[in-house]
């Protein structure tokens, strides 16, 4: 209050005193601070812009001193806010009422954000739906502005996490508030939950409306190797690759594209599991209807090779109708290891219908049936006795396959390779790739087999030549080729062997041939017998120079029980002779049969009884 009497003593007039009370009150208030504002830290206060000093804004909030704020605080998220002018009233945040140097700390940006935060809290709570613009991508998700900046985790952007969330930047999206942390001033939102909640409502409604056989409109949302997922308006249905068309579909992207609108057929509904199977092909009739009438058995058609597998080729007869030509049905004569040797994708081929399985929707086709069968002429072209020249194509343990002409092989069995040589493996006589002349022995046209002979190209030496050159009692020289427990095989000439039985090695008792000879030894032997019928020669190393042959050499061959009977008869005869020499003249005595030895060989069974030197 102004003391007017005191002022009048200094000759101050009333008109000069007028208004002094108001000025004095204002000056005191400016010095001690305004009573209508709370000057606590972190509170929003009003202030007046006094001046702009370069990049600093000087603001009077009615406190003991002014505060300074940088002009940058009027720039938010890259957008320039018009800078303040002297005399403007602004709201700022009082960060510190009095610092160490006596100044106050103010912030325009923080005051603005706190006001925005308070405005959002006043309008929204957890679970509310909000809309905002995606500002940028940050670690773990997106920054969205709904009045304040909130966090949208990458896992909450969509139902299926997109490959890149960058496509959402600058887009305005709707989200639901998941969590509000007032203390940290942090809000987490979810677009995924909002979509799921809305889809749940739509899904329940849609499931009640859908029926098998309906045609519905949907949008392709995702494509996989096995098909495509189509959004029917709240629920996704699977359009499997096999239901995209009656024809063969190898890549779903050849039929549908992302975001494409389709009319689909409701194939199946599982309301419990909320799964729906869709189809495109069932919108049109199946081409398999009346298939037997269109493609009767044995009818011929032209088709296109659309797929090749190791076991055959698939031929398209019409869209949705494909048949398999097995590799075995491609050629009568060619040996095919890979179908690509015959056909390529895109080739037009003539085929014959072999079989139709309507249930499995399978057609068996043949290509070779549209060509003449060369095996139908083999018996006429190659009758028995025909001499052919071919190439050894393959060897087995029982013979060699000779290519007579392309696709037609004959078998040369090991038993038909040589008259005199015992062939255990065909590689001993012929080699793969060798050109060979043989004679046709027989033709089995039904089983597609031709029997060939090599030895039949010449005369049988066992009929004339060998018996003429090897006479019983003749001394010859040979080479030991093999030892067995019953004797020794001796090579007399190339391809011709005789058997030297263990009993014919020496007069002394021998337990094993190794005691007398070894493989590779050259020995002198005497021919005991030549059996042309069974192609066997019996030899002996005993008395090789006397040119004689015992009278009681058994006929060859003798096998099994006949061999034992022959040995019994021979033993009996020997005992009778010995009994007569001793003058007994009666019935012979039973003699012990110890020391009896025998065996079988290429020259038949050879045996020896004790005391018998023949």
Overview of the molecule:
The strands form eight sheets. A five-stranded antiparallel sheet has the order 3-2-1-6-7. Strands 10-9-8-11-12 form a five-stranded antiparallel sheet. It contains nine helices and 34 strands. By secondary structure, it is α+β, with helices and mostly antiparallel strands. It starts with a helix and ends in a 6-residue tail after the last strand.
Q: Strands, helices and their partners?
A:
Elements: H1 4-9, H2 14-17, H3 20-32, E1 43-53, E2 56-60, E3 67-70, E4 75-76, E5 79-80, E6 89-96, E7 105-107, H4 108-123, E8 129-138, E9 141-145, E10 149-153, E11 172-181, E12 186-190, H5 191-209, E13 215-224, E14 227-231, E15 236-240, E16 261-270, E17 275-279, H6 291-294, E18 300-309, E19 312-318, E20 321-326, E21 348-357, E22 362-366, H7 378-381, E23 387-395, E24 399-405, E25 408-413, E26 435-444, E27 449-453, H8 465-469, E28 475-483, E29 487-493, E30 496-501, E31 522-531, E32 536-540, H9 560-581, E33 597-599, E34 606-608
Parallel strand pairs: 15-17, 20-22, 25-27, 30-32
Antiparallel strand pairs: 1-2, 1-6, 2-3, 4-5, 6-7, 8-9, 8-11, 9-10, 11-12, 13-14, 13-16, 14-15, 16-17, 18-19, 18-21, 19-20, 21-22, 23-24, 23-26, 24-25, 26-27, 28-29, 28-31, 29-30, 31-32, 33-34
**Inertia-based shape:** elongated
Backbone structural class: alpha+beta
Q: Rg from C-alpha positions?
A: 57 Å
- Residue runs with pLDDT of under 50 for 5 or more positions: 23-34, 554-567, 584-614
**Strand order of the biggest β-sheet:** 3-2-1-6-7
Topology, number of strands: 34
How far from one another are the termini? 171 Å
**Major sheet details:** 5 strands, antiparallel
Beta content comes to 35-45%
**Total number of helices:** 9
Whole-number mean pLDDT: 79
The percent of residues in helical segments reads 10-25%
